[in-house]
Amino acid sequence: MLPKPGLYALLFFVVQLFFIVGDSQSQPALRFTRYSADDGLAYNLIDDLVQDKYGYIWMATPSGAIRFNGLDFESIHTRNGSPISLEGGQANCLALDKSQQLWVGTHSGLKKYDYNTKLLTDWPLRLPGKNPGTLLSVFAIAFESDSICWTGTDQGLFRINLINDQQRHWLPDQSANALLDQDIRSLLVDTRGYLWVGSRKGVTKYRHATGEFTQVTMNSDFPNLGIAGEVIRDIMEDGKGNIWIAAAGSKSGITKYDFKTGQFHNYLHDPDNAASIVNSGVFSIEFDDFGRLWAGTDAGLEILDTTSNVFTHIRHEPLDDQSISLDIVMEVIKDKHGRMWLGTFGGLSIWDPYEKQFYNLGTGENKKKNLPHRNVKSLARSVNNALWIGMDGGGFSYFDIETSAFTNFEHHKNSVYAPSSNKVLTLLEDGAEGLWIGYWNKGLDYFDLKTGKFRNYLPVPGDDKSLSGRDVFGIYKDSRDQLWVASWNGLSKMEIEAGKTSFLNFVHREGDSNSLISNAANCIVEDIVNDQLFIGTEKGLSVLDLKTYQFHSFNAEDSALLRTGFMHVNDLFRDSKDNIWICTSSGLLRYQSRERVFSKIIGDAFNINLDLQAIKEDLNGNYWVSSKNGLNQLYQVPTGWRVNHYTKTDGLHGNDFNSSAAAMPREDLIVFGGLNGLTYFDPAAISNNSVAPEVYIEKIDLYDASEIEGESFPFQTISLLDEQEVYVPAKASMFTIAFIALNYTDPERNKYKYKLEGFQDSWHDVSEGRSVSFTNLDPGSYTFRVVACNNDGLWNMDGAALQIEVLPPWWKTPAAYLVFAVLIGLIFFGTMHLRTNNLRRSRLRLINEVDKRTAEIKKQNEALDATNYLLDEKVKEIETQNEEISAQLDDILVKNDFIASQNKEINEKNVLLSKAYQEREEANSRLRELNANLEHLVEERTNNLSNTLMRLEKTSNELNTFLYRSSHDLKGPLSTLVGLSMLVKKEFENQAMIHYSDMVEGTSRVMMRNLKKLQQVHMIFNKTLSPEEIQFDSIKKSLLNFLNETDKKGLVKKEIVLENPADEPLVCDREILQIILENIAENAVFYCCKTSPYVKILLKIDEKSLSITIEDNGLGISSAEKDRIFGMFFRGKENSKGAGLGLYIAKSAVDKLKGEIFFQSANEKTIFEVKLKCPMTI
């Protein structure tokens, strides 16, 4: 049976009053992020917490010490590789020393953590009179200085000198100046140098300077003259020097000790005061950044407001996964960014001030704290700073935000005390007396808050003064106190005359511009500047003049903006400057009322969902706009508008919001409704995380190429937290680098970018995980850099860097290159030396052969000359005989008779003469033939000799070219060798390595010097002379630099003088002159005296010649060697530094310039003199 109207109204207000006074909690409960065994935590019971120097959170649990980076839990092992729980039970406590090294107290003693090896090392405690192996349980650790560690155990107190491991041990005794108890559970070294020792029987204060203990215990008669309880679990010092003590025994509470006054103030449970501390043991205490004291107890979390001395009680809620993990809170700490960490019996709980402080209401098992239906279609502010909530299927509710109390209103058939439908689309509170409700298919209701009755308005067929539509989406009351209703059958204005209600309706008329643009009206707002009404529809915007009731026509520009792409209007809102904001399915428009200008604020340029649903303005002038994919904060900067985008991962009830479902119950509270409930928040509490994450490179895993098949494991893992450089051996063809950004606020949204300088110059996004792998990198130096951003996109661009040296295989190391280069050099010079000797011997053999052949030809020519001489004599003899015959013929003429008688004899002689003549002709013919053969033979042998000489010249040219190119090509590698040797000496401190590097560098420089000489030889025999005028200063500077380079130790005194009385120009081929000066001067340096060595160089110029004199006080030249000093490879001493080419090159250069070179040597003094034509002519 429904209550009567007056009784219903009375019950309604009594319920409101009850909810207002029924709960003192005015702020939403703290929200916690929880981690347990389901999230990878090895053990849910956490006894202690600490944050190390890097930012990692460490936990002491029964399964050992565990490290947490926001994403992963890592159990720490002992030196032998076992979890500490397997060796000595649980980890009891954690502490950082003055250098921020981590120490762990366990059931098997004290242990120190090594960040490089990631292992725990035992620090044995020695109990006097006991076996050295006796195990002690360590429950508390504190550090007095870098070298002094205090350790509280179940068998007394230890003071340890960490430098020499001297240990001192205390146990309680019967005196008043001794420890109260041997079972020590907490330690504190305060800023005044006092040690505070908490045990099961109270507190003992110790001053090391005096060596005295002072006992501090309870005073049951006068509580403020002693501490609150006996079992002391935590002691801390605040920023003012006050000491706070947590007691967890049968008598429990918190004590504040004021050092200045010596007074105790105890916070104890008061059964008559709900704002006092809970009656339960206190295990841990810590201050947050707001000055509140957090206390972990075995009945939940207590938070003390030290200004009002009021405790807030935070408890585990089984149905709330954002409450604390469990009500037994063993440890509370604050990290360096203000987050509060709780170690409980149910795992880890974190309160994060950087989380977005969004609060949600939805459906759930707890009906008193949840909505009856999740789809929130409408929200309306109440004059009581409460909230009306309309749901599509759940009726509507009254929600008191201060008390978190609900009053629900649901439809009951045929009841005037119940809403007409549960499908509520819109709400509007009409002052303090009534509420207007718009329904789907049930028209409009007025709810009288005094009588509790509902009155319904529906369209009446044939009555044009009834409500225009059954589906009411918007209700609005203008500045004239006129009620407007937007339905899916047009716009209606309520009119009341003579107590009778009617409606003036405005509908769409096809082809009539002076009508509503569409009958599907959604929302209404008044433009109070221009006295007009904005109506949002599914096809755009209509504007009604409130004076004439005529619809406004838009200009072409506004029409294009309003009708093209911005069709469905979801919400209308007037801001503090009286501008009208228009949420559409394609973005956000603003109408500046005073300027009468439309502009598009959010469009395609914004990377957000443009189907915008509702909008509100906060006190700072920022706008909050809901959408079909999250919530947006719109704010203006000098360059334009910017948006911060929030989604369900930021704490919203969901991403899908409903049109016009927004309200501001208070100035500091905005509420948005959606498909899964509602979200409310204080805009001032919503800010982006301004802390850039600290980035660390955690480790590198090295993989062997031969083992990378299927699931592979690294052959070596190197921890890199304290390292900035790593060497990757040649064996590791692949390595993986792991890194972390220590941001504990929504750490899954941290993002990373990396690059490997030396391999890639651009940044690369890390698509998933926190590691990257590289394979088959060339040997060399690389720099790996990684940067990260936090959950709100704030980047730490400094990030972390790691120098990576990828080592080559042994045959590609600098040492191997040095050895190979030396071997190649030795082979090259050995080959060159052998080839040169062979060529020299071949040349000598050729010269001997030519001399031999020439001698043979000479002998043959001499034989031919002798034969010709004999023939000439024979001819002369015959001619003499002819003359005698002629004389005889004359006689014959006289003595005719005698001739006649002698005729026969003469004829016989003529016959003999003819025969002799014939023989002569034959001899002459043979002689001519012999001469011809001899000339042919001489010509043939001459041609052979010429060909041989040409081949020799070609071979010599090829050798010169080979030597020049080889020497030129080898200069680069030798220079590299010198550089590598210097780099090795710089990078390594090993004396043997430095010695070998010096030897390699010296050998390389000698080889470079010899190659230079070979190039000079090539230049001398192939260069075309080019005379030029040379400045003496340039020659002097160049020569001095050369001599200083040759005499690196600066032992030799050097003097260079020019005598040029007539100021004659020095005209010569610069390069050839330089070769002459350098080689003779170098020779002088190489053979200098060991005591007071010097080299004097005199250049003397007259009008016809250049005279160069080079004098040294070196070893001198023996008379036996004077004929060989200008020969190739001549060295004055076998152990000489030179190659034996200097003077040979100098002599060749002098010959090139058609000059002369002389020398004289006596009494360890040698003078070389060169005479050249000057100015030089070609």
Please render the helix and strand layout as text.
Elements: H1 5-21, E1 33-35, E2 48-51, E3 57-61, E4 64-68, E5 73-75, E6 77-78, H2 84-88, E7 91-96, E8 102-106, E9 109-114, E10 119-123, E11 138-143, E12 148-153, E13 156-161, E14 167-170, E15 184-189, E16 195-199, E17 202-207, E18 212-216, E19 232-237, E20 243-248, E21 252-258, E22 263-267, E23 282-287, E24 292-297, E25 300-305, E26 310-314, E27 329-334, E28 340-344, E29 347-351, E30 359-361, E31 376-381, E32 387-391, E33 395-400, E34 405-409, E35 424-430, E36 434-439, E37 444-448, E38 454-457, E39 472-477, E40 483-487, E41 490-497, E42 500-506, E43 521-527, E44 532-537, E45 540-545, H3 556-563, E46 569-574, E47 580-584, E48 587-592, E49 597-602, E50 612-617, E51 623-627, E52 630-637, E53 640-646, E54 657-666, E55 669-674, E56 677-681, E57 694-704, E58 716-719, E59 725-728, E60 732-742, E61 751-757, E62 764-765, E63 771-775, E64 780-789, E65 795-806, H4 814-894, H5 896-987, H6 991-1022, E66 1028-1029, H7 1032-1046, E67 1053-1059, E68 1067-1068, H8 1070-1086, E69 1094-1101, E70 1105-1112, H9 1142-1152, E71 1156-1161, ...
Parallel strand pairs: 6-10, 59-65, 67-69
Antiparallel strand pairs: 1-29, 2-3, 3-4, 4-5, 7-8, 8-9, 9-10, 11-12, 12-13, 13-14, 15-16, 16-17, 17-18, 19-20, 20-21, 21-22, 23-24, 24-25, 25-26, 27-28, 28-29, 30-56, 31-32, 32-33, 33-34, 35-36, 36-37, 37-38, 39-40, 40-41, 41-42, 43-44, 44-45, 46-47, 47-48, 48-49, 50-51, 51-52, 52-53, 54-55, ...
Helix pairs in contact: 4-5, 4-6, 5-6, 6-9, 7-8, 8-9
